[in-house]
Amino acid sequence: MVRSRSLPVRPPTRPPLRVAAAALAGLALLAAGCSDGGSGGGSDGGPGSPDRTGATAGPSPDGSRSPGSSPAPAEGSAKVVDTVAKGLDSPWGLAPLPDGDLLVSSRDEGTISLVDAESGKVSELGSVPGVDPGGEGGLLGIAVSPDFAEDRQVYAYFTSASDNRIVRMLYEADEEEGNRLGAPSTVLRGIPKGMIHNGGRIAFGPDRMLYAGTGDSGDRSLAQDRESLGGKILRMTPDGEPPGSGNPDADSVVYSWGHRNVQGLAWDAEERLWAAEFGQNTWDELNLIRPGGNYGWPEVEGEAGEEGFTDPVAQWRPADASPSGIAVAEGSVWMAALRGERLWRVPLDGAERVAEPQAFLEGEYGRLRTVVSDGGDGLWLVTSETDSRGTPAEDDDRILKLEVS
Predict the structure, then answer these.
(1) I want to staple 312 with a disulfide (CB 3.0 to 4.6 A). Which of 10, 58, 77, 208 is the partner?
(2) d(Cα 256, Cα 236) in Å, to the nearest integer?
(3) Which residues face 368 on adjacent strands?
(4) Minimal CA–CA distance to 36: which of 349, 393, 301?
(5) % the chain with pLDDT above 70
(6) 210 and 185 Cβ atoms separated by less than 8 Å
């Protein structure tokens, strides 16, 4: 846990320019017709929200509540208790270390830095060779090995000149030379790249397998192409190989398909995988992921009720969400919204929603990119105002510490 400082954290004051800029950006996105703002403002505008929260219920997937588990309360809370770090440049991925410190990636700079969670000191560990930033690409998600204390391996997902790929690097600590990263070793290559829809989230699951959310790279057909790594959720060994069991095809790392641009992955207490996905003009989605599931893109967007496709558990108008990272804490999924500039809470009872999603921090800290659980009742939250689509305030970008219930 990060210790709260004695002074209260005051929400930053957003200049009037940010409202005008957001409105102009929304019009530009609507005119463009397809930029989902994976690094930017989220999906296109679309019609107005169907209710006051901008969220609607999807049908509950099959699955019952585990014995002894309790549903999350309908009403929760989220309070910022600390600004852990500030002045970050295009932060994207965040990975907690066993000692409580944090690793953070810079999308545009292609660097990974160490954040001292007590002092807030930010120390650059080094650049990741081969990163080719541009559009929604660059150095994206990062993760640490489940055996980090022994093997010191850091994983990174990035856009190269030819593809999106996953590498791993040895994180070394040297008293004389300081902290640094070793040369990268390729774990998986060949994920389609584009100026948009590069996905980028990676995480280790409870099964110790490595998962990755990918995008369709702007080519819709890839999402339904079982031979392509684009528009998928991938599941692989830490070495990048098919796990041998648990995937629909034993010889493939493809776990689910029909995705437009997945940037949020998290597991609940029952070890079920949840994923957030950018829609296009109509619906952003929170999905419960099952191996071999087809989540519809580009045939359907949002709840369709069509045979052969899995409907989302919750959906939002893009102006209210455009989701990136997600985390699970206190019985709820917490979802960071870029264009929506808020943190969504989706209370769960097993595999089902128990209440309408709640919004927190609306407009207080701008665009929100990544949210990570601290393993208890807290979250780390990363803002995304310096990615060329925001309106940075003086201290942007930041890592915030939240207490939630």
Answers:
(1) 58
(2) 12
(3) 383
(4) 301
(5) 81
(6) no
Give CA–CA dist 192/215, Å, rounded: 8
Tokens of 297: 């893109």
Greatest alpha-carbon pair distance for the chain in Å reads 61
Whether 279 has a pLDDT exceeding 50, the answer reads: yes
Q: Is 133 helix (H, G, I), strand (E, B) or coil?
A: coil
User: Sign of the CA dihedral 40, 44, 48, 54?
Assistant: negative
| DSSP type of residue 79 | E
What is residue 2's three-state secondary structure?
coil
- pLDDT score of 380 more than 90: yes
Give the H or E element holding residue 20: helix 16-32
Residue type for position 334: W
Cis omega (within 30 of 0) on the bond before 298? Answer: yes
Rounded CA separation 84/269 (Å): 27
The pLDDT assigned to 69 comes to 59
Residue 178's H or E segment, with its range, is: strand 178-181
User: Given this model, what pLDDT does residue 55 score?
Assistant: 65
How high does pLDDT run on average in the chain?
A: 86
Contact 294, 309 (CB under 8 A): yes
Positive or negative, the CA dihedral 243, 244, 250, 256 is negative
Burial of residue 131 (number of CB atoms within 10 Å: 0-12, 13-18, 19+):
buried
pLDDT in tens, 195-219: 999 999 999 999 999 999 999 999 9
Q: Is pLDDT of 31 > 80?
A: no
Residue 163, Cβ neighbours under 10 Å: how many?
18
The reply to whether the predicted model has a pTM over 0.70 is yes
Cβ distance 186 to 165 under 8 Å? yes
The span from the CA of 379 to the CA of 400, in Å, is 8
The string of DSSP codes covering 184-204 is -EEEEEEE---SS-----EEE
Neighbours of 27 (CB within 10 A): 11
| Distance in angstroms (rounded) separating the CA atoms of residues 239 and 202 | 14
Please work out, in degrees rounded to the nearest 5, the angle formed at the alpha carbon of residue 59 by the alpha carbons of 266 and 209.
25
Q: Could you report the per-residue pLDDT of 140-155, keeping only the tens digit for each?
A: 999 999 999 999 999 9
Q: Is the pLDDT of residue 43 over 70?
A: no
